[in-house]
Structures are given as C-alpha cells and as structure tokens.
Amino acid sequence: MKRIKIILGIISVLVVIFFATGSFIKETSYTASIKINKPLESVFKEFNDMENTKKWIPEIKSIDTISSNYAITGSVFKIAIDNQGETINMTEKVLAYIPNEKVTLFYDAENMLKTNDYIFSEENGVTNIVLNATCSSDSYILSCLFPYFKGTFRNQDQQYLTNFKEFLENGSVK
After folding, report:
1. For 77-92, how does the pLDDT look when each residue is reduced to its tens digit (9 = 90+)?
2. pLDDT per residue over 99-151, tens digit each?
3. Which domain holds residue 34?
4. Which residue ranges traverse the bilayer (predicted)?
5. pLDDT at 97 over 80
C-alpha cells in the first residue's frame, strides 16, 4: 500500500508540473540558422518562390493563394501538409517582407500558432539565414505541451533550412 501511495504521489506531482507549465510559459521560442554558398539576392528570391517551397519541405501537399497583395506583406496562403498520412490544413500570412533582409510568416495550424522570422544577411558571397521562431496555442493543453517539444520543433526547422541549402547548392534535396 505504501508503494501505491508513493507512485500516486509522484504521478500527482508530475501532473501538477505539466499543467503549471502552461501558466508560466506562454510561448516557446528557438532559433535555427544556415549558411548558403550563394549570393543574397538569389537565395532570397528562391526562398520566397512558393513553388520551390514544396521542393525543400517534402510534407507540403499543396499551396493555394487566398489573397495576394502587391507589396507581398498581408498575402495569405492555404497550405496542406501530409503529417504521417493525415492531412493538416494551415494558413500562412506574410507579416513582414523586406527584400533581401527579412521575411516574417505567421502560421495557424489547427491550434498551433507559429511565427517564423527569417533574417537574411551576406558576407563574402555566403548568405546567412537566421530563423527566430515562436510557437503558442489557443489550447491550454497544447501550451503546456509545446515547451517539452522545443527541441523537436527546432530540429524540424533546421532540417528544412538544410533541405533549402541542398536544393540551392545541389539542385535537389537528399
């Protein structure tokens, strides 16, 4: 009986810690970066070509334009993602677009709200892309869960940047 009380006590503490996470951590933030051996203008142009996105983010099934603005900022796209056989629909909105400097994208993917802020710079013909990402949710349970998946989110975005580099430098993704 004593073991059962100890086990229940440990489980109770873990549950309280899990649910307290959502009260203290409102959003999960991380960075990823990559250096690409191509000039900045070329990298920026290819990065923002929606048809190329499918080539370096293999989970994308389709991209449809909902609204397109002349200045690009404010444009909205509907993206269908294949997540292990399940289709997830999300909306992408361009929050900021400064040619050859910055692109900020906001994603609403079924309770996951994510902002990707890409900063572009060049040094000696090598382009550096730095991603500053934040994830949050309208769902309290997901808000509690996201901090524990920060490494997974970062690794996935780093892989996408690596795929983009391979696409530009080698013409295909491995």
Report:
1. 999 998 888 888 999 9
2. 999 999 999 988 889 999 999 999 998 999 999 999 988 877 777 777 888 88
3. 27-170
4. 6-25
5. yes
Identify the CATH number of the domain in which residue 121 sits. Answer: 3.30.530.20
Q: Is the pLDDT of residue 35 over 80?
A: yes
Q: Which pairs count as long-range contacts for 15-22, CB under 8 Å and 24+ apart, including other chains?
A: 18/144, 19/144, 21/143, 21/144, 21/147, 21/148, 22/140, 22/141, 22/143, 22/144
Domain count, the chain: 1
pLDDT at 174 over 60: no
pTM for the full model?
Answer: 0.84
Would 13 be classed as within a structural domain? Answer: no
| CB-based contact 146:28 (threshold 8 Å) | yes
For residue 100, tell me if it sits in a domain.
yes
Q: HSE, CB side, 13 Å, CA atoms: give it for residue 132.
A: 6
Q: In this structure, is residue 15 part of a structural domain?
A: no
What is the predicted pLDDT for the residue at 52? 85
